[in-house]
């Protein structure tokens, strides 16, 4: 046990390390592996954790048992494997490399027999990495829709409704293409942990419809390419087959198993704080909404603790997970974690006992190379001392500029897992 008051910044960063470790594929995958089948075992899938999941299977699989496969992960997220091929491709906007790799994944699935086994590995990021356009669509169509979805502020569940209905492999279609039994191991990056939403559910039954996809585009005023709109309208009219639905006979041989979630990460962090002799309260593993507004709500809780010792007394760590959104209205740099922190800082400014960290568990917050940032009691004053206006930068979606200027960015590199965002507000005496 250490005196957490001596190094609050280090304490926050180490708690993030503990949260990520609780969702490490090398730890969470092996307990879920079945015995080898009569025939071959094929590992197929995609996501930011896909390479680490494939490596975990390789390390645990019997040396004498056949094992092969192909997984697609984000650039710079690959690992050295021997039996399962790893291809890096574009994310969050799909690219031609991802399209070719995903088409090969589909081909390999179609070649399996009933004596074989498909172990699908699925994690956040898989929607763009498994980029097989539906018949009549192009990669350019998928790219255009993805860019607009990413900027509109829609929750990932709604974004994935659209993606599934423009795809030839998502929304249960990977499982449908395979005659073999399917065990789909899933690391969840969505609130609620529904297999159909994680990476757009390539092996999961899909309850959404073409009409739902059109509704999402209308709700967020997204002007999709003409070919994409026509495809969705044909589907809504029944001229194109729907995604496989719950109760479809193909899912009798398919198991979707979620093996790591945001809750696992939060419990890992909570255990870390308890080991340091510090109380910890979990505010929820499924926090959603605009990042700046979520920050205001959590700031209100922090002020209640500081002023009235309600509902908990300090010192305490308030941790939460889930996935906030950012409706991009400005032209700045930064992701949802840094935007949350900057908004939080403006709300709790003047409280010398308030520290915070917000990081994406995949190691990348938005479009930059940092996982997130740390907020100290001096961050905003330091930014103003360098001529920055934190409130104006928040309105310009440019929180990154503040934390970069003050040296408060957290850079971990790719973690090769992904269980949503990790946030902690540390309130000291």
Contiguous uncertain segments of 5+ residues: none
Q: Give the topology string: H per helix, E per strand.
A: HHEHEEHEHHHHEHHEHEHEHEEHHHEE
Describe the largest sheet: 6 strands, parallel
Rg calculated over all Cα atoms: 22 Å
Q: Provide the CATH architecture of the largest domain.
A: 3-Layer(aba) Sandwich
- Write down the CATH topology of the largest domain: Rossmann fold
Amount of beta strand: 15-25%
Distance between the termini: 18 Å
What count of helical segments does DSSP give? Answer: 16
Number of DSSP E strands: 12
Structure report:
- By secondary structure, this protein is an alpha/beta fold.
- The chain folds into 2 domains: 8-20 and 263-427, MOFRL domain (glycerate kinase, domain 1), CATH 3.40.1480; 24-260, Glycerate kinase, MOFRL-like N-terminal domain (Rossmann fold, 3-Layer(aba) Sandwich).
- The protein is 38% helix and 19% strand.
- It has 16 helices and 12 strands.
- The strands form 2 sheets. The chain has a 6-stranded parallel β-sheet with strand order 3-2-1-4-5-6, with helices on both faces. A 6-stranded mixed β-sheet has the order 7-8-12-9-10-11, sandwiched between helices.
- Helix 12 links the parallel strand 7 and strand 8 (316-325).
- Helix 12 (291-308) runs parallel beside helix 13 and helix 14 (379-385) crosses helix 16 (399-406).
- The longest helix is centred in the C-terminal third of the chain and has 18 residues, at 291-308.
- The two termini are 18 Å apart.
């Amino acid at each position: 046990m250490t005196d957490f008051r001596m190094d609050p910044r280090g304490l926050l960063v180490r708690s993030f390390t503990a949260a990520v470790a609780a969702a490490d594929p090398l730890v969470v995958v092996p307990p879920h592996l079945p015995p080898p089948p009569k025939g071959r075992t094929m590992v197929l899938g995609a996501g930011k954790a896909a390479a680490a999941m494939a490596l975990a299977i390789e390390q645990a699989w019997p040396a004498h048992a056949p094992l092969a496969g192909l997984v697609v992960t984000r650039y710079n997220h690959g690992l050295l494997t021997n039996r399962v091929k790893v291809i890096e491709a574009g994310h969050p906007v799909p690219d031609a490399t991802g399209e070719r790799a995903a088409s090969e994944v589909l081909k390999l699935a179609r070649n399996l027999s009933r004596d074989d086994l498909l172990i699908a590995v699925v994690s956040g990021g898989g929607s763009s990495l498994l980029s097989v356009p539906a018949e009549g669509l192009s990669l350019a169509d998928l790219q255009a829709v993805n860019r607009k979805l990413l900027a509109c502020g829609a929750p990932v569940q709604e974004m994935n409704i659209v993606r599934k209905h423009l795809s030839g492999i998502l929304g249960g279609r990977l499982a449908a293409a395979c005659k073999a039994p399917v065990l789909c191991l899933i690391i969840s990056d969505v609130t609620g942990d529904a297999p159909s939403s994680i990476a757009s559910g390539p092996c999961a039954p899909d309850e959404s419809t073409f009409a739902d996809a059109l509704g999402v585009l209308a709700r967020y005023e997204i002007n999709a390419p003409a070919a994409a709109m026509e495809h969705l309208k044909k589907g809504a009219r029944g001229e194109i087959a729907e995604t496989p639905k719950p109760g479809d006979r193909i899912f009798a041989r398919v198991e979707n198993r979620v093996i790591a979630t945001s809750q696992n990460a939060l419990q890992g962090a909570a255990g870390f704080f308890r080991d340091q002799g510090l109380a910890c309260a979990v505010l929820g593993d499924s926090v959603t909404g605009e990042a700046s507004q979520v920050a205001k709500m959590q700031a209100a809780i922090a002020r209640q603790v500081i002023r009235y010792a309600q509902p908990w007394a300090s010192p305490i760590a308030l941790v939460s997970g889930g996935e906030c959104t950012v409706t991009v209205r400005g032209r700045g740099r930064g992701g949802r974690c840094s935007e949350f922190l900057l908004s939080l800082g403006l709300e709790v400014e003047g409280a010398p006992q308030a520290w915070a960290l917000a990081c994406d568990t995949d190691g990348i917050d938005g479009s930059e190379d940092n996982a997130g940032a740390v907020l100290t009691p001096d961050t905003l004053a330091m930014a103003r001392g360098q001529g920055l206006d934190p409130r104006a930068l928040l309105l310009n979606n440019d929180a990154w500029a503040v934390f970069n200027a003050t040296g408060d960015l957290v850079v971990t590199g790719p973690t090769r897992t992904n269980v949503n965002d990790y946030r902690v507000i540390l309130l000291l005496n």
